[in-house]
């Protein structure tokens, strides 16, 4: 039975007054509500503080109960969950690793019936309570082992969703799907007895090639970034699918969403190379994670500076999924040129395929951070070390 004493109105007002306050300092104070454990109240404050920006809908809703702060840290943000919901459709979806239930909340806007499976009974009860506060009526919560739940429900689902735990028994980070819980590769045949479509969420640490090797019937891989920080990989599997794999890169920004799609391992995409022209393009983090560097050059008809530099250039300005700069000067990386143009100056420094670190460059040439000048230390197609001095357009 879920303890609802934390929902006492005075305790909830206390929690709201202390959002963002240091938990370490609060812990030293006397508990003003002795009938409720102080650690439970502190946990609500800490977890709700973390939810403020990540889960604004939960944060603004009254009488939400929060699990541990780790559960909040590991859950999808509302923005990435909203994107995820655009992938699925139909009448039914079962989530085998429900967690705090953010993904399912957004799935419920697109799918008629959702089953939320969570092995932790306390967390399952919390999620069921929160769905009532959020006004959700088409999600049922099932506590216990998800494979047993899948078997007991005994039905076909339009989608199965899985977010396997990315830690092993020793609490160390793991990088292979077979080392996660549940072991998705081992269970795929069983899952496909209950559905035609599976959506798997993994951490961005997982290598795409490794994931493709471990899984089967992969149709699409979605690389989702939030404010240029890759948050998750989404693996879309369809029973019996054997065709080419589409890579979709998504970078969700405050005022827009950048996208770029291509076919994985398409040998027909050959890049062009050239010296720096008027404009410089730096792909966003989702594109960088995709590895589709030749595809970027071919699709946008822009030139690469060098095979391993992953910077692009053009004479005419184009729309691009990443940062865009106008090149003001291109100088060789030499003592004379550095003293003349950059030593003791203020600039934003980036390195791409360059033997020195940003920290060493700043220290060596006494370059202060910031300002409106952007310098790219890189290598051109003749393997010469160069510096591109730019102003930012986008």
Automatic annotation (TrEMBL):
<protein>
    <submittedName>
        <fullName>Uncharacterized protein</fullName>
    </submittedName>
</protein>
<dbReference type="InterPro" id="IPR054168">
    <property type="entry name" value="PG_1098_Fer"/>
</dbReference>
<feature type="domain" description="PG-1098 ferredoxin-like">
    <location>
        <begin position="279"/>
        <end position="321"/>
    </location>
</feature>
<dbReference type="Pfam" id="PF18096">
    <property type="entry name" value="Thump_like"/>
</dbReference>
<dbReference type="InterPro" id="IPR029063">
    <property type="entry name" value="SAM-dependent_MTases_sf"/>
</dbReference>
<feature type="domain" description="THUMP-like">
    <location>
        <begin position="322"/>
        <end position="392"/>
    </location>
</feature>
<dbReference type="InterPro" id="IPR041497">
    <property type="entry name" value="Thump-like"/>
</dbReference>
<dbReference type="Pfam" id="PF22013">
    <property type="entry name" value="PG_1098_Fer"/>
</dbReference>
């Amino acid at each position: 039975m879920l303890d609802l004493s934390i929902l006492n109105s005075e305790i909830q007002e206390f929690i709201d007054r202390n959002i963002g306050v240091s938990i370490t300092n609060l812990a030293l104070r006397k508990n003003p509500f002795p009938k409720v454990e102080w650690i439970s109240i502190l946990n609500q404050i800490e977890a709700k503080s973390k939810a403020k920006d990540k889960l604004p809908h939960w944060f603004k809703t009254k009488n939400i109960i929060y699990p541990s702060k780790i559960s909040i840290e590991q859950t999808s943000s509302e923005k990435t969950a909203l994107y995820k919901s655009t992938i699925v459709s139909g009448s039914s979806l079962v989530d085998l690793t429900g967690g705090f239930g953010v993904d399912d909340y957004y799935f419920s806007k697109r799918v008629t019936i959702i089953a939320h499976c969570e092995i932790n009974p306390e967390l399952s009860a919390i999620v069921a309570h929160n769905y009532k506060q959020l006004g959700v009526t088409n999600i049922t919560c099932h506590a216990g082992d998800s494979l047993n739940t899948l078997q007991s429900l005994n039905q076909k689902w339009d989608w199965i969703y899985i977010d396997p735990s990315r830690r092993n028994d020793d609490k160390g980070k793991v990088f292979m799907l077979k080392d996660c819980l549940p072991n998705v590769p081992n269970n795929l045949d069983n899952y496909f007895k209950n559905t035609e479509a599976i959506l798997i969420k993994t951490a961005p640490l997982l290598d795409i090639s490794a994931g493709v090797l471990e899984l089967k019937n992969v149709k699409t891989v979605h690389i989702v970034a939030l404010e240029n920080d890759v948050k998750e990989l989404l693996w879309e599997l369809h029973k019996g699918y054997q065709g080419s794999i589409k890579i979709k890169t998504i970078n969700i920004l405050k005022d827009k969403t950048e996208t770029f799609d291509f076919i994985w391992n398409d040998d027909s995409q050959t890049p062009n190379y050239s010296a720096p022209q008027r404009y410089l393009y730096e792909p966003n983090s989702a594109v960088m994670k995709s590895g589709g560097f030749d595809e970027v050059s071919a699709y946008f008809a822009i030139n690469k500076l060098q095979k391993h530099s992953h910077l692009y250039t053009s004479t005419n300005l184009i729309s691009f999924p990443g940062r865009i700069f106008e090149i003001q000067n291109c100088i060789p990386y030499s003592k004379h040129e550095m003293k003349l143009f950059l030593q003791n100056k203020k600039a934003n420094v980036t390195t791409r395929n360059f033997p020195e670190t940003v920290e060493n460059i700043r220290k060596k040439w006494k370059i202060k951070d910031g300002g409106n000048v952007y310098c790219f230390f890189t290598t051109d197609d003749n393997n010469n070390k160069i510096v591109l001095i730019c102003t930012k357009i986008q």
